[in-house]
Amino acid sequence: MLPVIRVHSFESMGTFDGPGLRLVAFLQGCNFRCLYCANPDTIARQCEKTKFLPGDEILRRALSEKAFFGRRGGITFSGGEPTLQAKALIPLCRELKLNGIHICIDTNGSIMNRDTQVLFETVDMVLLDCKQLNADRHRILTGRQNTVTLKTAELLSEMKKPVRLRYVVVPGYSDSPEDIDRLGQAFSRFSNIDRVEVLPYHTYGKHKYEALGWEYQLDGVREPSHEEIDQIVDRLEAYFPCVWAQ
């Protein structure tokens, strides 16, 4: 039997978290406390919705949906922060690979150890979430430091692992020209970056904070306009050959 994985929920036919149609497994537990988190109920190590699933069950579910994946789709492990469960994910990902299923990991890149390295070697693509390059502003946004994310990017570059770099645009927190230029200057040297994904801040998860009895700390922060996102895309295109906005 494969190791048990803490899973919050699944999404079938996902089109946002990696190439093609995907089964998205949202894992339970995260080491960041992002102010804009759309899934705050995945932060704790477990909650009422947490499922403790043997990897075999996740494998069976992926195989049952494989016909819909086509040539480009597969499974994405998101969260939460999936690398917190890297050791348990490694044997599951090896079985998924043996069955011809494309694997993505969506990660904040903040955990660097032998298990995460083996996990990155095993999967097909990494969706790397960069929150902010400025250390102080990153700490405000996430409650954590950002020193490891760039090291993770360097490791993935050495592996020649395909990466999609993701960046959430939060007005007043991560949208200044300096923020965007710093992102471009830090990551444009990595030729393994498949594309940059610009993700506008939204309040879709606000009701979850209310349900949890938590204060929504970005209350009053507006969503960026289409024009502002277009300007950021234009600015990033000076650094990267492929920039995409949600």
From TrEMBL:
PROSITE patterns in the cross-refs: RADICAL_ACTIVATING, RADICAL_SAM
Location of this chain's protein in the cell: Cytoplasm
Query: What SUPFAM superfamilies does the entry give?
Result: Radical SAM enzymes
Q: Which cofactor does it need?
A: [4Fe-4S] cluster
What's a Pfam family this protein contains?
Radical_SAM
A Gene Ontology term for the protein's cellular component: cytoplasm
Q: Which one of the record's GO molecular function terms can you name? A: [formate-C-acetyltransferase]-activating enzyme activity
The catalytic activity of this protein is classed by the Enzyme Commission as 1.97.1.4
Residue span(s) of domain Radical SAM core: 16-241
- Give the cofactor binding note: Binds 1 [4Fe-4S] cluster. The cluster is coordinated with 3 cysteines and an exchangeable S-adenosyl-L-methionine.
Q: Kindly state which keywords UniProt assigns to this record, in alphabetical order.
A: 4Fe-4S, Cytoplasm, Iron, Iron-sulfur, Lyase, Metal-binding, Oxidoreductase, Pyruvate, S-adenosyl-L-methionine
- What InterPro entries does this protein map onto? Aldolase_TIM, Organic_radical-activating, Organic_radical_activase, PFL1_activating, Radical_activat_CS, rSAM, rSAM_sf
Q: Which reaction does it catalyse?
A: glycyl-[formate C-acetyltransferase] + reduced [flavodoxin] + S-adenosyl-L-methionine = glycin-2-yl radical-[formate C-acetyltransferase] + semiquinone [flavodoxin] + 5'-deoxyadenosine + L-methionine + H(+)
- Role noted for this protein: Activation of pyruvate formate-lyase 1 under anaerobic conditions by generation of an organic free radical, using S-adenosylmethionine and reduced flavodoxin as cosubstrates to produce 5'-deoxy-adenosine.
The family assignment reads:
Belongs to the organic radical-activating enzymes family.
NCBIfam families xref list: PFLA (TIGR02493)
Name of the protein this chain belongs to = Pyruvate formate-lyase-activating enzyme
Origin organism of this chain? Porphyromonas gulae
